[in-house]
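Need residues for this backbone.
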């Protein structure tokens, strides 16, 4: 199941356009590159962008392909 257009539009509205990872974030959502997305999530968390992380995790939960990414994110290992 792909990420829906409605969820993508919500991401575009709610994610801060000034966020320096914004372009990478939307590209990751469109293309489903799990490794790159995992790295983005880690960088966003390190940057204190918890709202962006929460939104991306919410979008990830809508699509089965992201489940491994989320499981990897929850592991205590660093990138």
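Answer:
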């Amino acid at each position: 199941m792909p990420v829906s257009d409605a969820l993508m539009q919500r991401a575009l509205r709610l994610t801060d356009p000034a966020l320096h990872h914004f372009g990478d974030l939307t590209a990751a959502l469109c293309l489903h590159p799990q490794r790159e997305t995992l790295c983005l999530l880690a960088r966003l968390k390190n940057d204190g962008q918890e709202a962006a992380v929460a939104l991306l995790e919410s979008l990830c939960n809508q699509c089965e392909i992201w489940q491994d990414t989320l499981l990897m994110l929850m592991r205590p290992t660093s990138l």
